[in-house]
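HUMAN: Ready with one sample?

ASSISTANT:
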Amino acid sequence: MTYYDDIYDNRDLNGREKAVYRFLKDHANKDGTCWPGINTIAAGVSLSRSTVKRALDGLVKLGLVEKTHRWRENGSLSSNLYRVK
């Protein structure tokens, strides 16, 4: 069974969460981490930034994704690091 089947069969996920979760899984490295920006995710799944943010919050709440803030050397916020499970 592929991870797609696991995603599609998961009744805890709504449509936006499934789309964002698939995007993160597809872009994760072998360790399950990726760091796309919100705009990149939104463009990749054809959803608005706010919808992507809600989907990410839901995935974090369900324990399917861990989100870690990343910072640049100058102290400004960079894209988040996501670890998908």
Observations:
- The mean pLDDT is 91.
- The longest strand covers residues 65-68.
- The helical segments are 3-9, 15-27, 38-45, 49-61.
